[in-house]
Design brief:
The structure is a homohexamer. Chain A is mainly alpha-helical. The first copy, chain A, contains 9 helices and 4 strands. Chain A is 46% helix and 5% strand. In chain A, a hairpin with a 6-residue loop joins strand 3 and strand 4. The radius of gyration of chain A is 26 Å and the shape is globular. Chains A and B meet through helix 4, helix 7, helix 8 and strand 2 of A and helix 4, helix 7, helix 8 and strand 2 of B.
Chain lengths: 277, 277, 277, 277, 277, 277
């Protein structure tokens, strides 16, 4: 059960409106690694969690915080849209900045949402749940989380440099900080789990299920052997169970691919006739 | 530039057809973490790579291998679809196994692809590029890769237990092994990069951009403090730059959210009139 | 800013597992009118709200409640998935119920989420934000909300009849009740707004913008005149500004559609040559 | 069975080409509430209609009209694209209006459709059937229709103010009028149905299915009680079956959410081991 | 402008209900090559047509017919859904056919549409406009149309063999016939256009734009030279402008792919540091 | 199994960066008929191929080449993004070209991919597998391929005229040439197959399945008879099995559409009550 407090977690006031930037900021609200994604990802992980209470609590704390981040960014976007020049078509012939805005703002901000945020990314594509990860294996999922916070913080840093607006930069400085925390917390939790279970997910696969002859070899499928120089091509593997090797000329173990002809009811081009060509 | 050798990387012959399992196997071909996803993810990372040759070569080797994995799984799916009972409607009233197949196989296998694999997940949803990650920051992307291989191996393990077919199990045993390698290789590469740059991505964010007061605190947004017991709530943070703390009652730093009323041309419900209610 | 209490708003315990029903229940979690939709719809309406505080509070109260409904249904789905027969392939030849389950359950429940809920509808299609509505005009949006709660309650009622499980029925009886409240609350708020502004949205369109000759006529574009008998074909219109009429043979006011030929750089099939045929 | 007359329902001639506006106008052709949506929504409602002929005729009349609206708007878009400066790259350095157009027009208009309309919204996202509603319950569906016409007319009004072109404004004045009619007709039909069945959809739910203790209470899930002042928080409910109340501190009736641990074949992180941390 | 006649183009009465088949039949209504696709494809081609009247009339005739085919198939689906056993959960344990239906029918038919057709394919994925083609080049588009009718008729033939129901087979026999006509008509129109313009689309590309050294060579990018035996590897090319050749070992003309390092503001992993590893 | 050579098939070096053009070029990488589409389409056709080796080899040769085309275009896009003015917000007020770029470039190029190509079309919509065709019937599929290469070459020609950059034009001249080859090769293969099987796909439909009375008639569903003049309205049909005719006033053979009322458990608006209105 959830509750809402009518205050923002951090202030979200731009110095001045900027509809072009509003469009760009949508990426960290409704993009692949925006706040909707992490909120939904953590909530589903939490709701589906069948394990230790401390992990579940950590997930729910963070997921609930992220709903509040959606609120902050949505607020910032609405404020950046104040005074958008959707009304001044003719003036654009004279002022290149207005021209850029008219051509460049997300039309949904003007036509669909009435100068409010939309659940879309910076290209105007609606958010969809194909972005999120909740597998029931928390080591796998914490890796998904660490990735999400890494991609997210990278995008925030890029957005930070794309504006001179002090108010926007302040909000982004807060998000950079929270993404630092979230990367560190998932990192710490991952270390705990890897120490218990080992590096390879899932830990529960019995050795006899795996064709272990193929478990520690890097195959050279692309011309050139630069990758042979890396720490992944020789030495003990991080999971401690194997020794990396490098295979310059990978063999094929599967033979020719030959499929039976389809039955007549499939109405495929009859293969026998075709062979007579 | 790419070349194709007409042999499978590993054999892909089921002991017997099984259209229901063919549907399930689609997940690791066309699902969020299927082989299309990793192939496309690595190829785009490689093509966009602007850095060190050994990383780029590693990425291209692996991406090229994954196209071959698509081929193996597509072949297996086609063979599982041989003799699918799409023709024997009436018989189903008597045989529950045929009933299960008729009700449960992916109709696209019968109607659309002519008993071949489709670029869809196990629920029949087409693959889309919103699944993949290629950010230009290789530490972030290698975390995405480690996650993808973790989720992928987890799904392979689950599929392994869902069949008694020895031929299927053999192909899956090979995929388990390759996912072991790929997890270990990305893990090793991540270690290298973290040792150089530190844990927090991106490494290039200057300290003054970040509101560092908020960088190492876990906020308790959900009732109960189980998460306080974790390694993420006290002690030195993994990036070595801060000390974790725990805030039981997180404050709001942003004040009330108040938006200006929209201009009249937005045709929103006029707020002034509404206030007179 | 949001907070989570670690209790469900209502109990969500089925009498027994039922993976087929788990798949169906996904509709009211991740479908077009599922709880994710109403939660996101109300939150975006609230965050974008630029008007009267009592409406905004109503929206935020309801949106926050709906996140809790997602939690209840996700919990129910996870419990319905306990003991799913993903492991008993061979047995299916004998037991039609297991056959139905194996063929009919959502494969994502077994392969992707580890027996947890997924953010998808009952056909396995991921939720997307193209479902939701937040226009900045609250009368329009409250109509969207009334529709969403009507469709939602209809689906809950249909699901109610599709099970004999007492535990499921109890949770659905709670959802039926909350949907009753939500329909009634949006209905009451709509009445208020319509009394102030009139029936036609948006109220702020000046009469001179509208080709009012066409504002109250039902055109008979389909053979047969049954629709002429309705209250929408004669009498005063609900907005009180016109009189309904019925036009049996609608005229075309637009003339022929003729487009200029495309410029040569479009590389369209050259129309002049074509005309010489 | 359908027939086409080679005339437009209303004229669709802009005073001059305007590729930026062509992009914006796509919203009411291929957007969530564009003409494709209402055409498809009404046609599916009509084809699935199992009830009274006068409703079915009304639905089919309106659905068939909307196909003609698609035609009008598609024609207008094609005309707005005449002379689009897709050919004058270099000139843009000098003329800001051409710069705005080059940067701002939908690239599909130039590359994909050859200066014709596309089945996309104003952000370039293809139309999809997840937008439409046809439930088999006509009161629910007429609410969906009233919402669609409200959102649609709002968008037309916003687009009206975004241009000075007299020809565009004339076509929009016709659409404003038809949306007025359609709002009024669905409103009238809704009144009829509500008088018969009552306000709450579906009407056929027996009282004993519903946990009626929860049917008329507004829960205060967000801080602040502004919503208590509304007509939805006290007095008789619109359906006449209850009395609204307001609950300042909503209780949780569901207890803790606890899920059984997953079976070992799910390869989830083993919860027992984890607890030993 | 469009009109609707209240009769079906052909009868659509199954001998008996069959919810499993209703799900399958959705493919030719809402699938990639279903009737919605061809209707929308032809209407957009017609509305965007800037050329010869006889082509435009042909397109509009066919597009308008296809709306009527949607109606026929939607009607058939609704009738197949009569008496669907959505109510008889418990009985399934005994009757395998009911089990197959319960597990196998599209849940949307029961929960969302009230036993009506849905705008989805046979896997339950909503129709989207990314399926259709309207490029403004009618030779290209007629090839798209010939393909669509070929894929469509193939799917109808497969569906024909998947049922014993005489009523369904009759409707499909009509669709097979209309697809025969449509394939033949597009074929005839293509011949006309190819005779005028030649085989290669678009015809208007000047020779000097094209690197004609590469215009008629088949490159052997896959091991084995079976393709060398085809009519596409030697002899005069169909467009009459070249001679096919076969290159067993294709050269690379592009040199190494090397990208400049990204600017620092991209926060990519710094390539210089990385090179020092 | 696949291999990668570290050279581009053709050079991909623009004379100068151009972020606006980079956005447009995405269409032929990640659009409906971009290189991802043809690569995936041919690979799936090849992997599912159950017929003659020479066709399969042709398909695999071409599919493998197309992966290399993705690489070329991705490389070109990355180079066009060098020096993109994502950093110079303020300058835009003075320079209209920078304004056009800021407003017009794909934000994903700046925020998401770090100045690399993205798997999206020119409007920023992610590629999805609903674009591709692999039916198991090679005549149908070769028609899909001929269409894809026709649409693709048309788009390349349009892009060619939208730039003055010599480097871009050179790469496009190579793509024009390869599309010429691919159109010609599929054309030649189609001729072979049509000579064997006839024109109508699938060839295997027995005459008695088809309602042949309807197989060669063009119905006049749109006002005006211009289409009667075409080669598709009289004379022998291309498949040689019929004679085209033209029907000015198509009859309805299906009678009224009437559906049974839904059962009460569907909770549809009760039709009987409604009729009493």
């Amino acid at each position: 059960m959830f509750f809402h407090r009518k205050e923002l977690q951090f202030h979200a006031k731009p110095d001045r409106p900027d509809p072009l930037y509003a469009k760009k900021l949508q990426e960290i609200l409704g993009g692949q690694f925006g706040e909707i994604s992490v909120a939904m990802q953590y909530l589903f992980q939490g709701w589906n969690s069948r394990g230790d209470a401390k992990y579940k609590d950590l997930i729910m704390d963070t997921g609930t915080e992220e709903i509040g981040h959606c609120e902050m960014i949505a607020t910032m976007i609405a404020r950046l849209l104040d005074d958008a020049p959707v009304h001044e078509q003719e003036a654009a012939a004279k002022d290149p900045m207005i021209g850029a805005i008219m051509g460049g703002m997300n039309p949904h901000h003007a036509i669909v949402s009435g100068l409010g945020a939309v659940p879309e990314n910076s290209a105007g594509v609606p958010w969809n749940a194909g972005y999120i990860v909740a597998s029931g294996n928390i080591l796998a999922d914490f890796r998904a989380n660490l990735n999400a916070e890494s991609q997210g913080r990278l995008q925030v840093a890029r957005l930070y440099e794309m504006t001179e607006d002090r108010g926007i930069k302040e909000m982004l400085s807060f998000l950079l900080a929270r993404d630092t925390m979230h990367q560190n917390q998932w990192y710490a939790a991952i270390k705990e789990l890897e120490e218990q279970q080992g590096v390879t997910v899932p830990a529960s696969v019995p050795a006899e299920w795996e064709a272990t002859d193929f478990s520690y070899t890097l195959y050279n499928f692309s011309e050139g052997e630069e990758a042979k120089a890396g720490s992944w091509a020789s030495g003990i593997s991080p999971d401690g169970r194997g020794t990396f090797s490098y295979d310059s000329e990978p063999a094929a173990y599967g033979g020719k691919q030959e499929l039976n002809p389809p039955p007549p009811y499939m109405h495929s081009t009859p293969p026998l006739q075709v062979k007579k060509l």
